[in-house]
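This follows on from our talk about sequence and fold. Can you supply me with one protein entry, sequence and fold together? Could you add the entry underneath, on a fresh line?
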Amino acid sequence: MRIPWLRTLPPRLVIILVVLALVAIFSAIRWATRPVWEDVEINGVRYRWPKEQTVVVRPPLNSSQTYVRYSSNFILIYDGMHQNAPKTGDLPYLQLTTRPGLSKPEEFNFVQTSGGTVLCDKKAIEVGLTYQCGMSFLHRGARWQLVFQAQQLTEAESLWREAISTLDRFAAGE
């Protein structure tokens, strides 16, 4: 294939154009083949999370402080720093729902499900904040938090089952 106008360009410019074209091609290949999964070990279980839906923070010196936040039609959180977080009265620690030292049981509605107790923050519902309800549960020895909107309260048990299924699906090995 001949390109007649190419002969009229200075040789240095042709070389620069070829190099730029190669850089663009290799950049596109690298972008297209970037890893789409993030591997995280939690309590001896290796999970493989989809990067586009997951935030993972790993402090370099203390792996017990790993933080994972997976977003779907609910939020699933592992917070290594708060695995043994103290309860506030009868309230379990829920990152987006309870505030240690500030929350009081009368500020919440409690709903029992087969997966555990769901807490809904009355004030958060009143002012229209998102993710006003949540529950805490164990999966393979690690405490996870399931947080969702008050409108989903009637689906709490199915959300819990979906969260367990999600964790099982992303568990790549033990």
Residues 1-34 form one domain. The two ends are 56 Å apart (CA to CA). The first strand starts at residue 37 and ends at 42.
